[in-house]
Amino acid sequence: MSRLLGDGHRRFLQTLMAVGITDEQEARALYQHCCDTHKMQCIPDKLDEFIEAINSRLQPMFMQIRKGMSEENGHQYYLDLIVSSENGSASSTDILNSTDTMTSKKLKKSETEHLLTRLVQDKWLCERRGEYTLSTRCIIEMEPYIRTMYQDQVKVCHICHNIAFQCQICENPSCGIKIHNPCVARYFKGRVEPRCPACDDFWPHEIPDRAHMTSPSSQQGSMNRTASTGITSSPTRRSEAARDSTRVLVGVCSCRK
Amino acid sequence: MTQRKRLSNVQSSSQSKRQSNSFMTQEEDEDATFTQPSTSQVQRGLEKLTPAQVDQKTAEVVQYILVKDQKKIPVRRADLVKHVVKDYRTVYPEIIKRAMRTFEQVFGLKLVEIDSKNHMYVLVNNLDASTARPSPVERPSNPKMGLLFVILSVIFMKGGVVRENLIWNTLKKLRVDPGQRHEEFGDVRKVITDEFVRQRYLEYVRIPHTEPVEYEFRWGQRSDMEVSKAQILEFMGQLHEQDPRSWTQQYREVHSAAAASSSQASSSSNHR
């Protein structure tokens, strides 16, 4: 169903396309600002509908505003389109060394460094103390691709069923389930003796402090995942916990079939 | 359909809505395989295609232009036809029309043909800039735009055209030396005389009969569309602590331009 858009929608979309990714608070503020600027009615809880209207018009062009969750602190991020990279977490040394084995295109060390800096700047990678990880934006955008191409290697969070790069793993060799750090915080909150949800072994890892993760908002997390070439989990399989804690962000991404 | 047949169709049929391009010149070498189809040809072409097919092709054109416009270099019709439209060229006018509508309705952008001879398009913001207030989400800004703004200001205040030396001297005073590599802008001269010109922000034209050769700068078509002269005058007023009205000639130009664009804006809103 195609909806009529106003200038408020258009300004929102333009800003999002320029900035790439925002968190929930920014999205709400932007929504308010766009409506005010163009004298459109702004109902605070109707951000999702607002975005849905834009998405309905973007759909014919295989584009969409999507939301997702940050692995680092549980914020849900909406995010934006384009190119990719590889590997869960890699040290800068590893990355620089790996360029030696590239056959299709030779990259000098300085070019690699420059590329890495740019990818971080454009929010495709995160860098911390010399280690590079995929950004939230990257993971959300590339999820279908990653699931297909790395089917055997990709780790999936036992709680929310999304791809897991930064996660804790059950130490039981015959179990080995993975859980995102924020999902761990949520799941084990308040439990005196944390136990693996799959094998019941003692969960040996430090339980992250829930206060540093997002506090659950009342908003429903609706993952608009259209057109994937890989396996995408249906909303019904998600645990209640995952559904509750959803802070949302907006970006525009490609969803070509 | 052979080339010859298409030509004769164009010549014999009713006048096409757009600039007719029936005669191929040397310059249009690369455009040689494309002549603007007539309205009746377009009608016939549409009959052979499903609405879904036309929509799909429109979507592809929109995406192509969105990506290409990121570099701010005008999109050539020849490239569009060769890489995207391809077999749908008979219904090209219809596809472009729909793409324009999509840009306006979904993105608040206007697809404008800035060169009706060589057929090139740019995307311009269609949203009302005058109502814009500071946004809670700041769009990443390009430092080169600051540089451009200074140049555009100088040109505007000097009546619309300046000799290049004035620009170089002004920039030198701001510690941007075209002779040296700049930390932020790199090869300053190249950015201004090549990049900005290709992006249609500036025009860099040779002054005839000058020896050694001298050039002059003017506003480019993109600047005309994207940059608000009113804003520049406002900024000048703040900079010199003067009322913008004290520059009577420029003030007059701003307000006649504003009148023209506001009538344009109201007519475009009627089409929504």
UniProtKB/TrEMBL annotation, chain A:
Catalytic activity: S-ubiquitinyl-[E2 ubiquitin-conjugating enzyme]-L-cysteine + [acceptor protein]-L-lysine = [E2 ubiquitin-conjugating enzyme]-L-cysteine + N(6)-ubiquitinyl-[acceptor protein]-L-lysine
Domain Non-structural maintenance of chromosomes element 1 RING C4HC3-type: 157-199
UniProt EC number: 2.3.2.27
Ranges of Polar residues composition bias in the record: 214-236
CDD domains: RING-CH-C4HC3_NSE1 (cd16493)
Entries under InterPro entries matching the protein: Nse1 (IPR011513), Nse1_RING_C4HC3-type (IPR014857), Znf_RING/FYVE/PHD (IPR013083)
Subunit structure: Component of the Smc5-Smc6 complex.
Name the record gives this protein: Non-structural maintenance of chromosomes element 1 homolog
Organism: Poecilia reticulata
Lineage of origin: Eukaryota, Metazoa, Chordata, Craniata, Vertebrata
From TrEMBL, chain B:
Region (Disordered): 1-44, 244-272
Low complexity bias spans: 8-22, 256-272
Pfam assignment, any one: MAGE
Biased composition (Polar residues): 33-43
Entries under InterPro entries matching the protein: MAGE, MAGE_WH1, MAGE_WH2, MHD_dom
Start and end residues of each MAGE domain: 54-254
A GO CC annotation given for this chain: nucleus
Protein name: Necdin-like 2
Originating species: Poecilia reticulata
Higher taxonomy: Eukaryota, Metazoa, Chordata, Craniata, Vertebrata
